[in-house]
Amino acid sequence: MDSSCSHDNHNDEARKKVSSDIEQYGCHIIYVLETDYLPGFAYTIGLHENYGAPEIICFGLKNSVLGAVLNDACKLIKNGKQFATGEDYDAFLEGYDVQFLTVNKAFYKDYLGYGLWYKGGDDFPVQQIVWPDKQRHFPWDKGFNPDWKFKQPLLDLNTDFKFYEERDTAVFTTREVLDGSPVLFVYHNEDGDWQFHSEQYPKIEDGKILAFDQITKIDPLLNGLFDLGLGWRAWRDATGGDWQREEYVSEED
């Protein structure tokens, strides 16, 4: 996902810039822009090399706030601060506590691609800063504002279901898929609906509705399409094959 960050190419010049920032400031910060479907986010490179601390990622805030939060964390880490999971910290957002989660490595390739390139692998820990809604409810609390669910995915668990929607969200598929045919065509409609088909043009009479997490149980590799944008489609030649993607214009338009 971080192909839209401030560095478009993995080259010597980019590596020198990252290394220079790490040496001068303690870390380099990667910013990834939001889309019409997914939130923007930012993460550090260098905290682990410099201080033996986890790198840090945070989602869903303005870039200026993301930068301030990560820079504040870097300053605290320089002074020996460590952040534990399940504890409140009030040093980042005025009037609101934040908490830290340990990021599961299954999410690294989804969100930390540039960091993986720079470091040459995934042998480093990462923590996620999670912030509450205006009523100070965290995403795992009862009463958390449901309109804010898409602003920050939680990267500690749920590696079997990486989509932002609720697990029981209805998705469209066909009888053929339920009977064992592979999902080869996926559509993410502009209205947010998802379709998973074995044929490019399935028959309407074969249509079925399924809970979202059931389609990922049928084929866990579908999780790789969690970031497919609104109005886009993806296809592959066979199960396990590489997905191709493009914007999709419905024939009704």
Could you tell me the mean pLDDT? 92
How many strand elements? 12
Question: Whole-number radius of gyration?
Answer: 20 Å
Helix content: 10-25%
Distance between the termini: 29 Å
Strand order of the largest sheet: 1-2-3-6-5-4
Question: Biggest sheet: strands, sense, closure?
Answer: 6 strands, mixed
Q: Assign the structural class, choosing from mainly alpha, mainly beta, alpha/beta, alpha+beta, or little secondary structure.
A: alpha+beta
Secondary-structure element pattern, one letter each: HEEHEHEEHHEEHEEEHEE
Uncertain ranges: 1-7
Shape: globular
| Total of domains | 2
% residues in beta strands = 15-25%
Count the DSSP helices: 7
Layout: helices, strands, pairs:
Layout: H1 12-25, E1 28-32, E2 41-45, H2 47-51, E3 55-59, H3 63-78, E4 89-93, E5 96-102, H4 108-111, H5 113-119, E6 126-130, E7 170-174, H6 175-178, E8 185-188, E9 194-197, E10 207-211, H7 212-218, E11 232-235, E12 244-247
Brief rundown of the structure:
The protein is of the alpha+beta class.
Keywords for this entry:
253 residues, alpha+beta, 2 domains, six-stranded mixed beta sheet, 23% helix, 23% strand
Explain what you see.
This protein has 253 residues and is α+β, with helices and mostly antiparallel strands. The chain folds into 2 domains: 2-151, no CATH class; 170-247, no CATH class. The chain has 7 helices and 12 strands. The chain has helices spanning 12-25, 47-51, 63-78, 108-111, 113-119, 175-178, 212-218; strands at 28-32, 41-45, 55-59, 89-93, 96-102, 126-130, 170-174, 185-188, 194-197, 207-211, 232-235, 244-247. Strand 4 (89-93) and strand 5 (96-102) form a beta hairpin.
